């Protein structure tokens, strides 16, 4: 009978996997670090394939350390580096670019333009957040604008957007689940915290397109 929980903590500098029993005792803990990529001053990226490889490494290692078989796992939980943003192909799951990390400031100019255009109140009323490069939406827009053909492919429904929890769930389910939860969605600038739903007007204003995420 399944009686363990597998917890994946995908952080900014590494991925950790825990195996926890029904009494919440930690039976195993394995961590694997990965590269930080700095293309320019103030820019920070992660290789999504490298992140996925660390997950593939720590999960079996933690199961082995705990002496637990996969069939004994009742559920998998994921916690992640929140605002970090990726876009990948729906057919096969290949990332179109490195993920843009929460620390990255490359969209500071876009955010300044939005503030100058008087969009701060609009954004705050819906998302509860300030306009800042920290959050996911302007990162996604940057990817659509700077990766060749990305915006057209997105409009054709070929691409999927998400934070790291979404990407890992996509990979873990073989592309069957494109999901997140409210805590991660609320850090994108695209989630209406009053309605607890994606906000179509925010997608359009932030140039992400339709609310198909």
What is the rounded distance between the termini? 35 Å
Strand order of the largest sheet: 3-2-1-5
Taking Cα atoms only, what radius of gyration do you get, to the nearest Å?
18 Å
Average pLDDT, to the nearest integer? Answer: 95
Q: What's the CATH H-level superfamily name?
A: ATPase, nucleotide binding domain
Largest sheet: 4 strands, mixed
Q: Give the number of helices.
A: 8
Helix percent reads 25-40%
The top-level CATH class is: Alpha Beta
Number of strands: 10
How many distinct folded domains? 1
Structural category is alpha+beta
Q: What would you call the shape?
A: globular
Q: Give the topology string: H per helix, E per strand.
A: EEEEHEEEHHHHEHHEEH
Tell me the CATH topology: Nucleotidyltransferase, domain 5
Q: Which architecture name does CATH use?
A: 2-Layer Sandwich
**Poorly predicted segments:** none
Overview of the structural elements:
The protein is α+β, with helices and mostly antiparallel strands. The protein has a single domain, classed as 2-Layer Sandwich (Nucleotidyltransferase, domain 5). It has helices spanning 48-66, 108-116, 120-127, 136-146, 150-155, 164-172, 182-185, 200-205, and strands at residues 4-10, 14-21, 26-33, 45-46, 73-80, 85-89, 99-100, 159-163, 191-192, 197-198. The strands form four sheets. It has a four-stranded mixed beta sheet, with helices on one face. It has a two-stranded antiparallel ribbon with strand order 4-7. The chain has a two-stranded antiparallel ribbon with strand order 6-8. β2 (14-21) and β3 form a beta hairpin. The chain is globular, with a radius of gyration of 18 Å. The mean pLDDT is 95.
């Amino acid at each position: 009978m399944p009686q363990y929980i597998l917890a994946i903590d995908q952080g900014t500098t590494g991925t950790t996997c825990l195996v926890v029993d029904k009494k919440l005792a930690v039976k195993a803990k394995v961590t694997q670090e990965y590269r930080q990529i700095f293309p320019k001053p103030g820019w920070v990226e992660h290789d999504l394939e490298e992140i996925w490889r660390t997950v593939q490494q720590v999960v079996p290692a933690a199961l082995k350390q705990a002496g637990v078989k996969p069939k004994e796992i009742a559920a998998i939980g994921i916690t992640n580096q929140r605002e970090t943003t990726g876009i990948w192909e729906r057919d096969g799951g290949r990332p179109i670019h490195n993920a843009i990390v929460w620390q990255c400031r490359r969209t500071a100019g876009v955010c300044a333009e939005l503030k100058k255009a008087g969009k701060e109140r609009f954004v705050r009323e819906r998302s509860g957040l300030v306009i800042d490069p920290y959050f996911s939406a302007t990162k996604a827009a940057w990817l659509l604008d700077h990766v060749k053909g990305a915006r057209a492919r997105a409009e054709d429904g070929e691409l999927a957007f998400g934070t790291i929890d979404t990407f890992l769930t996509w990979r873990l389910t073989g592309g069957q689940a494109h999901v997140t939860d409210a805590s991660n969605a609320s850090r994108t600038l695209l989630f209406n915290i009053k309605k607890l739903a994606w906000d179509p007007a925010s997608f359009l204003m932030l140039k992400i397109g339709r609310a198909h995420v």
